[in-house]
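chain below, 139 aa
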Amino acid sequence: MAVAVRGRGATLNGAPIRSGAPAPGAVLEVAMSHPDYTTDDQKRALLGLRTEGIAARPCGSAGLEYLAVARGDLDATAFNWEYAWDHAAGLLLVTEAGGAQSTLSGVPFRIAGGNDLPFTAARDEATARRVLAALRSGG
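prediction:
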């Protein structure tokens, strides 16, 4: 079971977890929303992830993808929907494991909505910046 408490870190089955950072120059593994089920602008942004240095794949369960980022098994996610029940716990888990998150406009995701989508949750700040740059190049 994964647990995160704001300001107190993240654990998996009672053991602390840290997201870490990918190796320098590594191809980023990114789970992304399906680009066909969104607006034209968001579709263009998501297709920006299909670039050199990024291995994008369709996302599975948001909760499991967030856990993979928090554990360092996945470099980042890129989602284009805002349902709080899909993101609130996962974003806290990633953040408490040392990761970073941001919307397309460079501000943190707001659980209440009204975000500039798509947004990313990543293992570290540098990875989040790389993913956002690719999203912006597609948009």
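The helical segments are 40-47, 62-71, 84-96, 125-138. The two ends are 37 Å apart (CA to CA).
thats it, cya
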